[in-house]
Write the structure tokens for this entry.
Amino acid sequence: WRADATRYAAALAVAAVLALACGLTLLRALAAEFDHDEHQFVTPAILFWRGEMPFLSYLYLHMPLAGLIYAPAALLPDPFLGARITAGLLAVGVLLLLFLHGRRSLGGGAAGALAAGGATVLLASAPAFVHTAGLTWNHASSVLPAVAAFMLLLHGTAAHRPWALVAAGVALGLAISCRLTAAPLLAPFGLGLLFLGRDLSLRRVLARILLLGLGAAAAMLPVLVCLVATPEAFLAGNFEYPRLSTVFHREHGRVWDW
């Protein structure tokens, strides 16, 4: 009975820690001061229901899905509050995925659960996470599918599940469609398939990479449509504006406080 009591105590401790981390993240989403940058993510969600799309109807300074992911929230009486709740839930999703992956990797015992819970708390208290979680930006909306893509990639290679590799590609494509800085993840994901498949034939490894790429390409079809339909606006919003913004902040001595 002592072993059972220890296991139950560990489970309760982990559950309490997770509930606290997730609860504080959601509370921040509701209580944080409004940031002027949130307008550019809520506005596309509202315009979506009026038949207007980024780049096709107006110039946008982010990837297309960055604002459209908040479209359901725009149907609520208070779109900004709905978007904040959505952002908070996305951040909570990141924490829960990290915990689940850590617990699965470290084993299902009490020690593994405690270690996974500790890692989750470290992320929840990290300055960069605290600064971005819960705000209507495109951080959690990109990180969540990226983390899911990593977990699906590991599952697909370990269990030899082609569907998981396609799903990993879709998740990775969604991450890139929300935030362009997720695009470099394509390289380590491809290299990861090479490393994890080092005991397989080259043909099977290339097949895995193809499945991942097909999933990513399918998820990024809306991005391709915007690029083909309005190339100048798309390139200006995602490449030229960030370059000019970086130069501006550098010349004016802007220091990020997080």
Observations:
- The mean pLDDT is 92.
